[in-house]
Amino acid sequence: MDFSHSEHELRWQTIARDFAQREVSPIAREMDELGAMPPSIVSRMAELGLLGSTISSDLGGSDMTSVALAMVYEELGRACSSVRGFMTVHSSLVMQCINQWGNDKQKSTYLPMLASGQSIGCYCLTEPEAGSDAANIQTTATPVDGGYELRGEKIWITNANIASLAIVFAKLPIVDNQKPHGAITAFLIDTSTKGFQRKKMPGKELGHRASDHAHITLEKCFVPSENILGGERQGFKVAMSALDHGRLGVAAGALGVHQACLDATVSFVRSRKQFGSRIGDFEMIQASVAEMKASLEASRYLVYLAAWKKDTGETSTLEASIAKFHATEAALKAASEAVLIHGGRGYSNEYPVERYYRDIKGLQIYEGTSHIQRIVIARNVIGKP
User: Fold this and answer.
1) How far apart are CA 153 and CA 82, in angstroms?
2) Distances 360 to 119, 235, 334, 339 between C-alpha atoms, Å
3) What CATH superfamily classification does 237-382 receive?
């Protein structure tokens, strides 16, 4: 692995960092309190080319490498996890999924609009009884003349209330004693389609409060046959490959949160004084900062290793899971320590570390919990019987 970054990658890092620090970070607290992200943020991301991610310029994309995209997600995560989360769902789960599994017509129809921000995408897999157990989805797709009728519900669907395009996973009738996951099919659905109903998830989230999360109900929602993504009964493969893309985005976002925790902590311990000395001179504080820094660099290596391997064309499922697992767990510990070091200030929204603490818990859950990542990693290491 080459540990140096190309001019291409450094250029995208600079664009993302400038945008994140100048335009996102100053309003991150306000977005968190209001529970909403201004549309101008999305428009600006499209204008800068960030939404185009790794998609070819022939299809309106930005030709980023996976490493460059990870650098973008890190910078966005450093400023606001909700903004990073929006882009990961839109650009990685939706766009990269269409790019990987779509036919030429689907790619040319949807990708340019998604890259330009004219269309917003959402990824609809999670259900009330199917979170980690994705093969257990209950949404059905019944064959009818010219296509399928979908019935079911999806929850915690990021971007869904503002999306115009949804990738929805549903089960066809099971045939020949087929295993449940073998009936899953992915569909591209215009969210204005009759029978596609959405509303904001009830309650107030612990973190990612500026993100849009929806409860979707599908009732006799007709989808034409040409809107199948990846082929009939291939939906489980489509879903798992998309999660590989998304996990790398979550891992890089966690890296950004971890960096933000370290930045805030270092700034605080240099200025805060107790017992006549700045607290950064106390050995217990120094030990915490040292551990925070060491685990950050370990996470950074794992994240960029996974991205680099993806750029080589090799399978990177294991590396993405390791990166997601380690980066989120390390960032969670760093956020907890940052709040503790800030004391009473860290327990209020006077300082941003309490937001980082709330946000990182979501990253420990999204795109497969840490428990699921342990299973993925262990099965790759041990192998099938």
Assistant:
1) 24
2) 28, 29, 10, 13
3) Butyryl-CoA Dehydrogenase, subunit A, domain 3 (1.20.140.10)
Size of the chain, expressed as the number of residues it contains: 385
Q: 27: which 2 tokens? A: 């309003």
Q: Which residue has the tokens 């650098």?
A: 71
Distance CA 155, CA 215 (A): 4
pTM of the prediction?
0.94
SS3 state of residue 384: coil
- Specify the CATH superfamily of domain 123-233: Butyryl-CoA Dehydrogenase, subunit A, domain 2 (2.40.110.10)
The CATH classification number of 7-120 equals: 1.10.540.10
Burial class (CB in 10 A: 0-12, 13-18, 19+), 103: middle
Cβ distance 354 to 338 under 8 Å?
no
Strand-strand pairing, 165-171 and 121-124: parallel
Active site residues per annotation: 367
* Integer Cα distance of 272 and 293 in angstroms: 20
Nearest to 20 by CA among 65, 72, 68, 85: 72
pLDDT digits (tens, 9 = 90+) for 240-258: 999 889 999 999 999 999 9
Residue 1 confidence (pLDDT) above 70: no
Question: Is 90 exceeded by the pLDDT of residue 131?
Answer: no
Domains of the chain, by residue range, sit at: 7-120, 123-233, 237-382
Centre a 10 Å sphere on the Cβ of residue 175 and count the other Cβ atoms it contains: 9
Residues 187 and 148 sit within 8 Å (Cβ to Cβ): yes
Q: How far apart are CA 359 and CA 311, in angstroms?
A: 29
Residues 6 or more apart in contact with residue 10 via CB below 8 angstroms:
none
| Residue whose pair of structure tokens reads 């109903």 in the numeric block | 197
CB neighbourhood size of 174 (10 A)? 12
Task: State the alpha helices, DSSP H only, in 272-352.
Answer: 283-311, 317-342
pLDDT for residue 155 is more than 80: yes
